[in-house]
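Dear colleague,

As promised, here are the two records you asked about, laid out in our usual form so they can be pasted straight into your sheet.

NAME FIELD: protein one
SEQUENCE, THEN STRUCTURE:
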Amino acid sequence: CARIAANALIPGMMRSKVCEVTAIASRSRDKAEEFAERFGIPRTYGSYEQLLSDPEIQAVYIPLPNALHKPWTIEAARNKKHVLCEKPLACNSDEAQEMRNVCRQNGVLLMEAFAQRFHPQNHKVKQLIETGRIGKIVLITSSMSRSPYPEEDIRMNKDLCGGVLMDMGCYCISSARFFIGAEPVSVFARQDISESGVDVRTAATVYFTAGEILHFDTNLYLSEGHFEQGTTIYGQTGNIYIQQGFSQVETHRLGKLVETPLEITNHLVGGRATETILIAPVHQWQLEAEYFADSILQNSGIDFPGEDGVANMRVIDAIMQSARTGKPVDL
């Protein structure tokens, strides 16, 4: 059971009126029972297969190491369970495409768990962009970085498809695609690779169809206990700074709901002005879980289906290829 499940998604589900956490599975039955006691979950299983065979379960959340996303998503789909899969969706776009295909063949939903897409601040930013508040997007700069992981952490394991791009850089890509509303056409990237074979820094430039550019950096170079994130969207007439663009750390780590500020600056020479918009506190993982549950209960489509996860993985694939070859890569 991953840390993100314990600290964010399960508490979010527990806050919801449309989600019911019915069962939990772990390779260790003792661990599953410990988790269940902590959250008041009625059923535990000592294997994933047992949980997937439970006819009362409609959907599953998969927060396993990246390399296990594909096999267990496919197994869940074959058992007719809808799947909310933790990011990144897979180890590469071919795996993601296979996951999407099997879910579609079995009539179940597949959604990648990027909770920031459901936070009202990002919908407000999208609205500001679409109504022309900052003019056409020219550039997005984005960063998500933290102190190093322990060497034994699964995110430092190459065989499990670890690395900082897969763990944090994927947020920068996903959010830029959301705000721009289009897919990239080419990328150029560099990576610092650790002794364990995973990237500890990725810096990339991503070019979009209408000339928009994303510059992002994600790394494990911060001092112990430090975490940094943020996105600035530059338009022809102004910019929007999203201080907590991806994760409300106080919510994730401390269980505290916080206001999130958006700063909008007008670039006019001689008339420069900044406005701050405060977004009321929410639990973005609760909103994510509710959206997914409502889509199942109402038998409706979703705005971020498996195809969206495939598209994000294609960009990640291209970034890795560019970093290996030292050359731009077209998508």
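NAME FIELD: protein two
SEQUENCE, THEN STRUCTURE:
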Amino acid sequence: MRAVLLVLATCASVALVACGGDEAAQQGTSTAAGQRSPATVPVSRPQVEPFVPDSAEVYANGKRLAGQIAQDALTYRRGATAREVAESLPDAAVSTRRLARILAPVVDPEMRSTGQVVYPQLSGVTETSLGVMVVVRQTLESADGARSSFTRVLDVRLRRSGGPWEFDSIASVGGRPMSRPASLPDEAERVLDHPNIELSDSARWDIYRGNVDPSLLTALANVADEHELAVAVIKSGHPPNVWATDRASAHSRGFAADIYAVDGELVIRQRQVGTGAHAAARMFFEGGARQLGSPWSFGGGRRSFTDPVHQDHIHVQQAAVRDVADGD
């Protein structure tokens, strides 16, 4: 699964520059990335190449803007404040003050930070709105050169009225880091330790917190026994409601997961019957998924569906949850 991230980073031509994490971050899932002499640790905002979406993307212009916004939101100088970062983004529909509050958990003035887009996945679309859950690797560097990294899911919202897409808001930064508990249920351990499952840290923290349906975890692990899966989002970073409705999403209760790559290749590039992504989706369906959104429909009424939003990922909900709508 590491190959997926390497290929995506190469395609996007993004120069990864290291940065550092606060105390909460040090207790999360960060990995040490080396250390430099304090005299050589820069303070200025890292220079990062503009994000370029994959050529197979259907909503390429919207994903380009959403990816760039997410990348810029996590790229800042040491000493920056959340308000400074918010002011550096394009004009939004929400106030700078509100945007700064949303960004506050990911802006640490003691750190220099770089954002690198891993993948921008759709969460919803209408004629006038577009939701993109951007998986971004945030690398932090402290004044003494210590580095740590996390993969967060930023819920980026766009709008338009007859013209190009414009920035609307960032609704979520994908949760806060936490340490792995000493003891977890077997199905959680199986997913977390499965060699064929690549999780964003936002999804990983959901599992740590016990916020994920056990039957969903079992289904993910069962399919991962046959296919490599890259999971973008479970709960944190996903819109709480089904897009453009007032109905709560199954993701909001941890009953659904979105997979953006299978067997090391993006789902958006595997929309033909017979691909690894198609085979994995069929395994979820035959394994009893209550709801399966993907580039294909396998029958079963609303158990399996396809639409413009689900061309770039596999959405799987394994069990029913009271008072929550099936689907995204």
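A couple of things worth noting about protein two: The chain has two domains: 2-172, 186-317. Residues 2-33 have pLDDT under 50 and may be disordered.

Best,
R.
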